[in-house]
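Dear support,

I submitted the protein below through the web form. The confirmation email said the job was done, but the results page showed an empty box. After a refresh the structure appeared. I'm attaching both so you can tell me whether what I see now is the final result or a partial one.
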Amino acid sequence: MNAPKFVKYPLLNLQTILVAFVIGAGLANGADPSRPNIVILFADDMGYGDLACYGHPSIKTPNIDQLADEGIRLTSFVTGSWCVPSRTQLMTGRYMPRIAFNGSTGANGVGGLPDSEWTMAEALKDAGYKTHMVGKWHLGYKQKKFLPVNQGFDTWFGMPYSNDYMKPWVQTDEPLGLFRGETMVEHPFDQDPITTRYTKEAVQLIERSRSDQPFLLYLAYAMPHLPLAVSDERRGLSNAGFYGDVIEEVDWSIGQVLKALEKKGIADDTLVFFASDNGPWIDMPPRMQQAGNELWHAGSSGPLRGSKGQTYEGGPRVPAMLRWPGTIASGQVSDGFVGMPDIYRTVLSVAGSTLPDHALDGDDLIPFLTGKTKSAPRKEYFYFKRGLEALRSGDWKLRTVTGELELFDMKTDPFERINRASDKPEKAQALLSRMHEMAKEVGVKVKE
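What the results page shows now:
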């Protein structure tokens, strides 16, 4: 990272002293002095309404439900409304417009995370963690420097971008293959067992972990992004069709990961975070409605308005939960306002990692998660797509993209049914002014 305060992989120097200081400071905020292992379980396009614990009437997700019961389940968690922005927020703690990708990150895309970004993996590796990734990256691949193993991860097995980057859904001749480290090791490959293969890899990494070194394991599932895939062993087992089979296999996978932590004897020493990257692809484009993909192969945003790629809540609001036995009390359900950049900030806090010297868009959640404060620290969240489309500040959300101001009271109307702009014009104008401030700061325009 181009920062005067430290370099990415320093020798014993002031950086080491700073890490020790941060760990000590973390104790005051409720962080565990032993520094937990970090496991991030990240679904792809899973909707707010796809899990039993979020109200799905027929899909069974006992392992995810148990994970929620053993920690805190968040009902107002937001992220980017499609793949790349949400992964950017997770890995850097920053809104995507702050970062100079210099191109797209899908098939044939030449963009990627620049050296100026301090990824979660780089921060934890620098703090002494072993760092592993399994699954979808989507933050750059065309140059080797953009790959996960050159962005702080010691190991990576997975795809460089989404599983639909191939004909007929995407008109590209770039091969969709599985990578190990810097090398594509398999092309073509059968997607049906991809969840089971990722699960096996993740479990083996847990089994091989060392007791004297904490680890980061980032498992980014391919599913339930279209085209859907499920193993022969779990095909046809759900009561909710093909999509239900896929979700229930992800739930099975999470159960295997949690069992591996228990078997290793480290479940109580591990912070587990589960979420989806964005909402379901309900309004999939025509290019996706072919070659076996059906409209009913998308999930549900539950009671929320909108879907993937939109800045109504059905796009960015997703299921999310955290478990850390002995630190985060079990059985909690909270509508506290939390955003994906907060996960980056929180993980670095509990790991005793050095923060970057540039602007972050997340808050440390530890005081909130441990009950030291009653409210989540986030005050506002900006919703970007092609420009800045919306802002939530406190209980109010302003959306500008339809050509008129849409103002919603998220406390009384989280479903965004009633536009309150006409009876709250001062509030609408205040939020619009704040949107213009942020747009100017990050170099985009408010989409009006």
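Response: this is the final, complete result; the empty box was a page-load delay. The first strand starts at residue 37 and ends at 43.
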